[in-house]
C-alpha cells in the first residue's frame, strides 16, 4: 500500500465516545479527557477551538480534528467582539469570557466525567436523550463530537501526521450526507447502533484527514509528500507492504533501481530520516498496534514485523518505546 493508505487504514473506533453537543451561548467546555484524537463537526451555529494558545473558528459544515492528549477548549464564538486575532489564550485553563449569569462552563475529565470548574457533577443535568448533551435540548450551537481514546485505535502515524488542530472548511471535507447519516444513526437508538456509529466515525475521520492533507501538502510529513519522487515512493511502498523482509539500504535501492548512495540521499532528504531508521519506526509502530489490538504472542508479532525472535523485538521495542512489550500491552489494552 502507499504511505497515505497505510496511514488511513488504521482508524478503528471501538465504542467511541460519540455524542451531539447542543448549546445556547454563552458556553465553554474545557476538555481534559487525554484522548488521542477528537473529531468535531459543526452541525449548526458556530464555535471556537482553543489549543496551545491558538484559536480556530469553526462554522456550519466545518470539521476539525484535535490531536491529544493535551487539553483544549471549545467555546461559543462571539462574532461581534472577537475575530480570533487577539492575545493567545492559556492552553491549560478556561478561556476568558465575559461575566454572564447563564454561562455554562464544563470540564470533561479523562473518564468522560462532566463537572463544573469547582467539581460539581453535570452529567445528569446536561443529558438530553440518546447521545445528546448540552445546556439545552435544542440550542443555537450544535456540534457532533467523536473521541478516539487511545493511539492504537487511530494509528500513531495518523496522529503524528496531523497538526494540533486540523481544520477543514465546509465543502472540502466529508459529504453532508455522510454526516447526516452519522447524526441519524447516533440518535436513532437501534440494534447494532454502537458498531454502525463507530464505522461511520472512522469514515468521516478518514475523509477529513484526506481532505486536510490534500489542502496542506507542504505541511504534511515528508513520508506523505513523496508521490512525486518515484524512488522514495517506491521504497516506502515496499517497506509498508513487506515489513518482514530483511531490508537493507542496498536491497531497498535495488528495489527501486538506483544506486545505494543515490537512494540513501534522496530518502533522507524527502522523509527526514535515514531508510533504516524509518524502517525500524514503521516495524515498531506495527508491533505496538498488534500488541494492543490482538492477543498474539510476541514471537508471532516479531515474525510479522521483521524481527528474528521475540527477544530481538523486545530489545528494539524497549529501546525505542522506553518500556517492554509486555508492560506496553498491559498499559494500553
Automatic annotation (TrEMBL):
Entry keywords, A to Z: DNA-binding, Transcription, Transcription regulation
UniProt superkingdom: Bacteria
HTH araC/xylS-type domain span: 233-331
Coiled-coil positions: none
Signal peptide bounds: none
GO molecular function annotations of the record: DNA-binding transcription factor activity; sequence-specific DNA binding
InterPro entries tied to this protein: AraC_lig, AraC_XylS_family_regulators, Homeodomain-like_sf, HTH_AraC, HTH_AraC-typ_CS
Region spans: Disordered: 77-112
Alphabetized PANTHER family for the sequence: HTH-TYPE TRANSCRIPTIONAL ACTIVATOR RHAS, HTH-TYPE TRANSCRIPTIONAL ACTIVATOR RHAS-RELATED
Protein name stated in the entry: AraC family transcriptional regulator
Organism: Sanguibacter biliveldensis
Source lineage: Bacteria, Bacillati, Actinomycetota, Actinomycetes, Micrococcales
Amino acid at each position: 500500500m502507499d504511505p497515505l493508505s497505510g496511514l488511513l487504514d488504521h482508524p478503528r473506533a471501538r465504542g467511541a465516545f460519540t455524542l451531539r453537543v447542543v448549546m445556547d451561548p454563552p458556553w465553554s467546555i474545557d476538555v481534559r479527557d487525554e484522548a488521542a484524537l477528537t473529531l468535531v463537526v459543526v452541525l449548526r451555529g458556530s464555535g471556537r477551538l482553543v489549543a496551545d494558545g491558538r484559536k480556530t473558528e469553526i462554522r456550519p459544515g466545518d470539521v476539525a480534528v484535535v490531536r491529544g492528549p493535551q487539553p483544549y477548549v471549545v467555546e461559543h464564538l462571539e462574532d461581534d467582539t472577537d475575530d480570533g486575532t487577539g492575545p493567545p489564550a492559556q492552553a491549560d485553563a478556561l478561556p476568558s469570557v465575559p461575566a454572564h449569569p447563564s454561562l455554562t462552563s464544563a470540564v470533561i475529565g479523562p473518564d468522560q466525567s462532566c463537572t463544573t470548574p469547582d467539581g460539581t457533577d453535570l452529567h445528569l443535568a446536561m443529558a438530553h436523550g440518546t447521545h445528546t448533551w448540552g445546556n439545552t435540548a435544542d440550542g443555537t450551537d450544535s456540534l457532533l463530537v467523536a473521541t478516539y481514546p487511545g493511539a492504537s485505535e487511530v494509528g500513531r502515524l495518523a496522529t503524528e501526521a496531523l497538526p494540533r488542530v486540523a481544520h477543514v472548511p465546509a465543502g472540502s471535507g466529508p459529504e453532508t450526507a455522510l454526516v447526516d447519516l452519522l447524526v441519524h444513526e447516533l440518535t436513532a437508538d437501534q440494534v447494532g447502533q454502537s458498531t454502525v456509529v463507530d464505522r461511520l466515525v472512522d469514515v468521516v475521520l478518514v475523509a477529513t484527514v484526506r481532505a486536510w492533507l490534500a489542502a496542506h501538502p507542504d505541511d504534511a510529513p515528508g513520508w506523505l509528500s513523496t508521490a512525486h519522487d518515484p524512488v522514495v515512493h517506491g521504497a516506502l511502498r515496499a517497506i509498508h507492504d513487506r515489513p518482514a523482509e530483511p531490508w537493507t539500504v542496498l536491497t531497498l535501492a535495488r528495489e527501486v533501481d538506483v544506486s545505494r548512495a543515490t537512494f540513501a540521499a534522496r530518502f533522507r532528504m524527502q522523509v527526514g530520516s535515514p531508510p533504516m531508521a524509518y524502517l525500524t519506526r514503521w516495524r515498531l509502530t506495527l508491533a505496538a498496534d498488534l500488541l494492543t489490538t490482538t492477543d498474539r504472542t510476541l514471537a508471532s508479532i516479531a515474525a510479522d514485523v521483521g524481527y528474528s525472535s521475540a527477544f530481538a523485538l523486545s530489545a528494539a521495542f524497549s529501546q525505542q518505546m522506553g518500556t517492554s512489550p509486555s508492560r506496553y500491552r498491559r498499559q494500553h489494552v
